[in-house]
Design brief:
Length: about 150
């Protein structure tokens, strides 16, 4: 007698209302909607995080989250932004991409010891698993992010 296939449930945080949704892993690519606000759980865009949203998205998500710590006055940050947005479209739902404006969220920048920007930090279930300081060209950005899809 065969055992039934176990469904692995993932916690996925809604980018619109920050509700934590439980979703079977095999449904990630099916364009799932939030159980609370009924909007798409994946938008193909980096999400802006503040102190309150950071905890929900980084600590409660079972999907790896890569956070771009940046500032509006930073030219390398602005030059990397289009590639970062393109990466969000290509890598969701396997990764969630987020941005933290270090000017507006100085306490988050201090908590993570951000000394230069842009700085990318990869998180898995709230733990920092990798960090890169400095802007990356598109190919290097995708390669760096790809290393954190299934490892950690």
């Amino acid at each position: 007698m065969r055992e039934p296939m176990r469904t692995h449930l993932l916690h996925v945080v809604c980018p619109h209302c920050d509700a934590v949704n439980r979703l079977p892993q095999q449904r990630l690519g099916e364009g799932p909607n939030c159980g609370r606000c009924h909007r798409g759980l994946f938008t193909g865009q980096p999400i802006e995080l503040d102190e309150k949203r950071f905890g929900a998205h980084v600590e409660r998500s079972d999907i790896p989250v890569i956070v771009d710590f940046w500032a509006p006055w930073c030219a390398p940050c602005r030059s990397m932004a289009p590639d970062y947005e393109r990466a969000a479209r290509q890598l969701e739902p396997q990764l969630r991409l987020a941005k933290v404006d270090t000017e507006a969220q100085a306490s988050l920048a201090a908590r993570y010891g951000i000394r230069s920007i842009p700085t990318l930090i990869a998180f898995r279930q709230g733990r920092e698993i990798a960090r890169h300081s400095g802007a990356l060209p598109a190919a290097a950005l995708m390669q760096w992010m790809g290393r954190h899809l299934h490892h950690g």
